[in-house]
Write a structure and sequence with these properties.
It is a single chain. This protein is of the alpha+beta class. The chain has a four-stranded antiparallel sheet with strand order 6-7-9-8. A three-stranded antiparallel sheet has the order 1-5-2, with helices on one face. β8 and β9 form a beta hairpin. α8 packs across α10. About 30% of the residues are buried.
């Protein structure tokens, strides 16, 4: 199963060659935070390292947070990277090239997204304190042909992407090629297993019907033989009865091949044998 940390690890190993892409990715990393000092807070060491590397390569000042500045969160601690937001304030989504937009989305995914890629269904979400920032991200995802939805949760705005196709598009867009391959392999495997299970269930149901029908036909043939009526039937019905008794587990196709007639004609003869046996039962009951 694809692990969310592996996805972020792969994205963190991408080193954009273009300065414009590095600036766009850094803008994506800082997108959730509206503070003037541009503080990135993350629980992931790789993401913090990416932020420092991108800023350093662009000449963006990086200031160390004071000792003890890490904030606890359920036994874990946020890593804080303080950047000069003014150094990237000139970056604009509207003027960005497609490769810059992909880099921005990758930064936003690294910096603020949580990923759930379990069997219950893939799900990626961003939690924002600012509804405006959340709306911006949703529009930018839509510009990249990724359908995202928005909901409210505990005074926070959540932007989320769910569904196999949408998450696969997101992974492809951000350059997580290995993760995409694992994701698609898992999806194909699940589809094959589901299809196989449906086929096995259908085959089992058909087999159950065949067994029940054969048992009903054999009991009918036995009743006709006990009363001596079987010998007075037409040659076709007697031959059908003989083949059914000789092949108690056979399906209609097998019996039709043995009789040298169509499947429909075979079914008609066997059904007629059951009807005749029922007539015997009804007459004896009367």
């Amino acid at each position: 199963m694809l692990v969310a940390s592996e996805v972020k690890g792969e994205l963190a190993r991408i080193h954009p060659a273009r300065a414009c892409c590095r600036r766009a990715e850094l803008a994506g990393l800082l997108h959730r935070d509206e503070a003037a000092d541009g503080e990135l807070r993350t629980l992931d060491y790789a993401t913090a390292r990416v932020a420092v590397q991108l800023a350093t390569s662009l000449g963006v000042p990086v200031s160390d947070p004071p000792r003890g500045a890490a904030s606890p969160l359920r036994g874990r601690h946020h890593l804080r990277v303080r950047l000069d937001r003014g150094a990237i304030s000139g970056w604009s989504w509207a003027d960005a090239q497609p490769h810059d937009r992909r880099a921005f989305i990758r930064g936003a995914l690294l910096g603020a997204a949580s990923l759930s890629l379990g069997r219950s269904g893939p799900h990626v979400e961003w939690v924002y304190a600012s509804p405006r920032r959340a709306a911006e991200l949703r529009r930018r995802l839509a510009d990249c042909e990724i359908n995202a939805a928005v909901s409210e949760r505990r005074a926070r705005t959540v932007v989320y992407v769910k569904g196999q196709e949408e998450v696969a598009t997101l992974l492809r867009l951000t350059g997580a090629n290995r993760a995409l391959l694992d994701f698609e392999t898992g999806r194909v495997g699940r589809d094959v297993r589901n299809r196989l299970n449906r086929l096995l269930n259908a085959e089992g149901a058909n087999l159950d019907r065949t067994v029940l029908a054969a048992d009903r036909q054999l009991r009918a043939i036995g009743a006709l033989k006990e009363t001596g009526r079987l010998d007075r039937l037409s040659g076709g019905l007697r031959e059908a009865a003989l083949q059914r008794r000789a092949r108690p587990d056979a399906d209609l196709d097998t019996l039709a091949a043995a009789l040298g007639i169509s499947r429909s004609a075979t079914n008609h003869r066997l059904r007629r044998l059951v009807e005749l046996a029922n007539e015997l039962t009804d007459s004896s009951a009367a």
